[in-house]
Every structure is written in C-alpha cells, then in structure tokens.
Amino acid sequence: MSEKKQLRIGLIGYGFMGRTHSNAYSQVGHFFDSEHSVVRQAVCGRDEVNVKAFAEKWSYASYETDWRKLVAREDIDAVDICTPNDSHAEIALECVKHGKMILCEKPLALNGEQGEAMVRAVEESGLPNLVWYNYRFLPAVTHAKNIVAAGELGRIFHYRANFLQDWTISEELPQGGAGLWRLDAAAAGSGVTGDLLAHCIDTARWINGDIVSVSAMTETFIKERVHTATGEKQAVTIDDACAFLARFENGSLAIFESTRYARGHKALYTFEINGEEKSLFWDLHDLNRLSYFDHGVPGDRRGWSSIHCSDGEHPYAGNWWVPGLCLGYEHSFVHELAEFLRCLDDPSLEKRFPDFRHALGTQHVCDAVLESARSGRWVDVKKA
Ligand SMILES: NC(=O)c1ccc[n+]([C@@H]2O[C@H](COP(=O)([O-])OP(=O)(O)OC[C@H]3O[C@@H](n4cnc5c(N)ncnc54)[C@H](O)[C@@H]3O)[C@@H](O)[C@H]2O)c1
C-alpha cells in the first residue's frame, strides 16, 4: 500500500458545522481518491467536558480548550474555523502566522474590511484556503453551473433566489449563546444577509458571474430581545428580513429575498435562472432534482422536465451509490472537501471551490446590500 500524505485537521468549534465537517472528514476518503488522507487530529472548544465528549464521539485524537494553542500546534496542518462570525478574522490571521492552511466557515468575516485583511494575509503566505459555501457542491447545483457555463441558456435575463425560514418569530427567543449568536449583530455581523443570503449570493455569482449593483430593504421585526450574556433586554440590530434587487455584470437582473419570519418555511432555498433558450430551477427541499425547460424542444412536447441528478454522469453522484439513489445535505461538505484535496494533490489544477478571495466578493455584495438598505439608494458593489 502506498503511503499517503497526511492532512492533519484542527477543528475549532463543535456545534452544527463542527459536526457536518467532522462527518466530511470521516467520509471523504471512502468515496473520493486522493494522495492525502484526512486525519482528525484535534478539536477545540471552551468547555472541557463537552469538547472531550465530542473528540471521543467523532474520533479526534486529542482536544484543546484554547484555540490559540490548537493553532500553534506543530502536529496540525490545516485549521477548520467553525466558530461564530466575529472570530473568523482573528483566528484566520493567527493561522497564517503559524503557517496553517485554513478552511473557514461562511460568511468570511463580519465585513469587507476584515475580509480584505484575511485575503491579503492568505495570498501573501500562499497557504491553501477555502470557505464552506457548501450548496455549490450538491450534484443538481453543480449540474446547473455546468449547463450555464456551457452557454446552453443563451443570453441570461433573470436570476431569482429565496432563502426562507421561520424560527425567530417568537419574541421570547433570546439573543446570544449557542446557535442564538445569530441574533446578536456583534457576533454575527448581520442577520439574514450574512447568514442566508450569503449562500444565495455565492451560488448566484458562481453560476451567473459578478453582481455590480444592488438596491435593498431590510426590517427588524422584533426590536428588543433578552441577551443571554446579561439577562437584560437589549436592542436587536440584525436584519430579520432582507430583499434586494441586483444587476449582474452580464446584464441580467436579479431579485433575492430572505427572512426568518416566513411562517411554515424551515429552509426554503430556491433559485431560478431564465435564459433565452432554457430555464433552470432548483429547490433545497428536493435537492437532487434540477428542473429544466428547453425552448428548443418541439412546441407540442415543450415543458418543464425534472432531472433527478443521481446518475453516474451527474456531478459527484458516481462516487456514491447506484443510479437513482439520493444524496443529502451532508454530501455537499464531503464534495467541497474532495475538491480541496484534489487541488492539494495537484495545485496546478483549476480551483472548483470558493477560496477567501471569492468569499470576499460575496462579502462585498452583503456590505453593499446593508449599505443600500441604510441609505435607501442603489449601491455599487466593490470588486474583490
Ligand atoms: N455552510 C453552512 O451551511 C453553514 C450553516 C450553519 C452555520 N454556518 C457558519 O458556521 C459557523 C458556526 O455556526 P454553527 O451553526 O456551527 O454555530 P454553533 O453555535 O452551532 O457552533 C459554534 C461553535 O463555536 C464554539 N465557539 C464559540 N466561540 C469559541 C471560542 N472562542 N473558542 C472555541 N470555540 C468557540 C461554540 O462553543 C460552538 O461549539 C458560523 O460562521 C456560521 O455562519 C454555515
């Protein structure tokens, strides 16, 4: 058996994303070939009892309770940042000082200014870097990207995306702490814009090119919530809902909407692209399907078809089971990791995963959206 190079991971944060990534680390080698084998070397969390239990459950060789110690360890090659958004920049900059590769959760940072410092640091160091915009790597979404990249849609006129949830409607929900840090602007940077729309924007930019200008509105429906840190009611400064219009560099128009107040919706992420020749539609609730309309089909047979992207020729599907069986949300993380490993094996290959610079472009769109909502004007998006 040939010796593989080890990629020793240090994971910081073991909440929702810590679990999805740990699952990807354990699965990737079974389904994707690489010269690298991923080693779950250490996990870091602040609570020793909990982090130890997580390390045992997910087979990490060791644990730390101080992320700076983990970053400084010589037996770690890559650090995975799975903490709330306010810590991404600080941890990433420390990783660069210690020569670690970085896999960072989205959004890249609290704002574009932080993001620019992160991009400068990783690019000067030459260290491989990735941001977990995972939805790109679902077979149906990658298939949509490939169809558009082949020019099959012809001229593109429209892009529209939604990401709807309903979990913050109760006034009793506090802000701060595990999971609920999302309601605290100090920890999250923004509300649905950085949390949910960032995903829609990443996918849109990947498939349809850069967004050049935006006009947005936001609302904070519940103005005060108890903060878990103080027990006191405190102003809520995140955007609970955001809708914006956008113009793409290719001349197409877009409309994006996200809210956590759409009663009945848990994670309704959909996008639709309308081109001169064809249209595409995707829905996270039916994530293996890509809806496809081809105007080139004779008129009496024309209609929306539903492609179940589970055949061997669909992206990533052939690495798993037999045609017709389903993949799930968790596979998107495995696929993104496989793309990262592919480029570690051969750095001359074209990157098919979002790096810090791409994520900075998305951050700039988010910043422009929030600025437009504040000013009530169209705002041009800064180039990354
Ligand atoms: N890609 C996606 O689809 C997706 C989905 C959810 C969250 N996210 C992103 O992932 C990140 C984490 O979100 P989550 O849902 O996993 O949050 P979470 O609240 O479930 O987990 C956060 C973890 O970070 C830990 N943590 C916080 N401060 C820390 C510190 N100083 N040192 C060590 N550990 C610390 C917490 O204890 C917890 O384990 C966020 O940036 C979020 O935007 C991405």
Overview of the molecule:
The chain has 384 residues and is of the alpha/beta class. The protein folds into 2 domains: 5-134, 3-Layer(aba) Sandwich (Rossmann fold); 137-380, Dihydrodipicolinate Reductase, domain 2. It is 33% helix and 25% strand. It has 10 helices and 17 strands. It has helices spanning 16-31, 48-57, 67-72, 88-97, 112-125, 139-149, 185-188, 192-208, 329-345, 356-375; strands at residues 5-12, 36-44, 62-64, 78-81, 101-104, 129-131, 156-164, 211-219, 224-226, 233-235, 241-248, 253-259, 268-275, 278-283, 289-294, 304-308, 379-380. The strands form 3 sheets. Strands 16-15-14-13-7-12-11-8-17 form a 9-stranded mixed β-sheet. Strands 3-2-1-4-5-6 form a 6-stranded parallel β-sheet, sandwiched between helices. Helix 1 (16-31) packs across helix 9 and helix 4 runs parallel beside helix 5 (112-125). The chain starts with a strand and ends with a strand. The model has no long low-confidence stretch (mean pLDDT 97). Residues 12-18, 44-46, 67, 82-85, 87, 105-106, 132, 134, 178-179, 195 line the site of nicotinamide-adenine-dinucleotide. InterPro entries: Gfo/Idh/MocA-like_OxRdtase_N (IPR000683), Gfo/Idh/MocA_oxidrdct_glycsds (IPR050463), GFO_IDH_MocA-like_dom (IPR055170), NAD(P)-bd_dom_sf (IPR036291). Pfam families: GFO_IDH_MocA, GFO_IDH_MocA_C3. This is D-apiose dehydrogenase. Residues 142-280 form the GFO/IDH/MocA-like oxidoreductase domain.
Total number of helices:
10
Bound molecules: nicotinamide-adenine-dinucleotide
Largest sheet: 9 strands, mixed
CATH domain class name of the largest domain: Alpha Beta
Q: Can you tell me the CATH topology of the largest domain?
A: Dihydrodipicolinate Reductase, domain 2
Order of H and E elements:
EHEHEHEHEHEHEHHEEEEEEEEEHHE
Classification by helices and strands:
alpha/beta
* β-strand amount: 25-35%
Number of strands: 17
CATH superfamily placement of the largest domain: Dihydrodipicolinate Reductase, domain 2
Q: Could you name the ranges where pLDDT drops below 50 across 5 or more consecutive residues?
A: none
Strand order of the largest sheet: 16-15-14-13-7-12-11-8-17
Terminal CA distance reads 44 Å
Shape: globular
User: What is the CATH architecture annotation of the largest domain?
Assistant: 2-Layer Sandwich
The radius of gyration computed from the alpha-carbon positions, rounded to a whole number of angstroms, is 21 Å
Mean pLDDT: 97
Protein name: D-apiose dehydrogenase
Keywords: Oxidoreductase
